[in-house]
Amino acid sequence: MTVGEQPIGLRERKKLETRRAIRAAALELFEREGFDEVSVDRIAAAANVSRTTFFNFFPTKEAVVFDADSEQVAQWQALLASRPADEPLWTALQKVLLAYLEGFREHLVAKQRIKAASRTLGASSRDANDRFWAELTEWAARRDDGDPLTVSLQLGVAQAVLNSAFALWDVDDGAEPLLRLIRRGFAEAGAGFRPAPSRRRTRRT
Amino acid sequence: MTVGEQPIGLRERKKLETRRAIRAAALELFEREGFDEVSVDRIAAAANVSRTTFFNFFPTKEAVVFDADSEQVAQWQALLASRPADEPLWTALQKVLLAYLEGFREHLVAKQRIKAASRTLGASSRDANDRFWAELTEWAARRDDGDPLTVSLQLGVAQAVLNSAFALWDVDDGAEPLLRLIRRGFAEAGAGFRPAPSRRRTRRT
DNA sequence: AACCAAAGTTGTACTCAGTTCACCTTGTGC
DNA sequence: GCACAAGGTGAACTGAGTACAACTTTGGTT
User: Fold this and answer.
1) Nearest alpha-carbon partner for A182 in A127, A121, A131, A136
2) Of A62, A41, A129, whose CA–CA distance to B120 is shortest?
3) Rounded distance, CA A112 to CA B153, Å?
4) Which end of chain A has fewer beta carbons closer than 10 Å to its terminal beta carbon, N or C?
């Protein structure tokens, strides 16, 4: 499936394998018992690896859920590079985010399940895809030489669209409704919220 | 200054005093040495209080920076209650948030300074006023019986406006420029980002 | 004034996340 | 096969947050 197959040696392969083993063990435990109830010690044990090694691969316990691996990162970067330079930022943001999310439906469902079941994870509003926002921000700043507030606002609003969609999403319905919510969100937020003076409902009680 | 002066006993007064002492000690240490460099032990010592007592008042170390005290909460709730029920949500959000922020200029500056100097605080995107967003969300849901996605979006976008403003704000300029940024943010986000087909800049290099 | 229950404070002891470091183990290039 | 570096490990440490039993203070009762 990947493009360049042969160049990586045994070392690299083992490393990736270990990383996957840790993540797999962790996710399984999290799904079964909940994020807060599983200690790093137990994850390490379940993955046949030392605690120290766990922290060699993942900077925090949360990272095991949220950090992307090299494949995902590459996919993401290709996506960013694919948008034409003269496309309006708002349009590009929609396209990029939707394409990305569509590429990771199952992953999303797993993440959301774990997040929903954990007090601390839910609270720390580590959102949709997190580690990418920094990169996305740089990308936006690079391609758009407009007013910094305007750029930052559009990024923030895009994030708000995702947050709202995730918040209203019922995981058990699968990924499709989420994507629908996100598309609607982009449409509504893109149109703005200036109160229509005509449609003034005077509903009471 | 407060409305009901006499009803609270010595107990209550002492409690509030302790809370203030802890917060004052903490903020002073944070400003001088940075959030990450000051341990809860040292804060407690500086406030002449035990570690345990610290955690009786503040659930986490972060809370000492971000949690509002009873006065602030009351002010906030009055503000929410003051908006007419038939005012459009987007308008009400702007008014409420701006009024609130204007009421806490100095506090904002202090918070921002501490946040800017801390790696962990900056990362955990505990934003503008945090503990209020839950309340604000309920308030919005209660007053607006429209589509939940629309309501959630407007809240999210309002938060994006604040985030962007805070991000671009240079603390040393004082609170005024921040408020200007926020007002501009509300205007721009409220107008939406639908790409204007006319104004197509084909700037290159 | 002496007494008492409830509220508030404290020290102790614990769990767990995350860091540091010196020491092994193993893949790779020679 | 050998040397060296990349990677894995155990031990020991710091600091946040929790649990709890013992102590002190407040405010009301007799």
Assistant:
1) A127
2) A62
3) 19
4) C
Q: Does A197 touch chain B (CB under 8 A)?
A: no
Chain B residues in contact with A201 (beta carbon < 8 A):
86
Residues 6 or more apart whose CB falls under 8 angstroms from that of B123 comprise none
For residues B101 and B127, is the Cβ–Cβ distance under 8 A? Answer: no
Q: What is the band of B132 on the pLDDT scale with cuts at 50, 70, 90?
A: low
pTM (2 decimals)?
A: 0.74
A47 touches strand D (CB under 7 A): no
Of B159, B70, B129, B73, the residue nearest A189 (C-alpha): B159
Distance from C-alpha of B156 to C-alpha of A6, rounded to nearest angstrom? 46
Exposed, middle or buried by CB within 10 Å (0-12, 13-18, 19+), for B7? exposed
Decide: helix, strand or coil at residue A21: helix
Judged on CB neighbours under 10 Å (0-12, 13-18, 19+), A113 is: middle
CB contact under 8 A, A153 and B160: yes
How far apart CA B87 and CA B83 sit, in angstroms, is: 7
Give burial (CB, 10 Å; 0-12/13-18/19+) of A130: middle
CA dihedral A147, A149, A150, A153 (to 10 degrees): 160
* Residue B113: its H or E element: helix B105-116
Separation of alpha carbons A43 and A48, rounded Å: 9
Q: How many other CB atoms are found less than 10 A from the CB of residue B21? A: 15
Q: Cβ B148–A168 below 8 Å, yes or no? A: yes
pLDDT digits (tens, 9 = 90+) for A188-204: 888 887 766 554 455 55
Distance CA A58, CA B189 (A): 37
Cα–Cα distance for residue pair B167/B170, rounded to 1 Å: 8
Residues 6+ positions from A36 with CB-CB distance below 8 Å: A118, A119, A120, A121
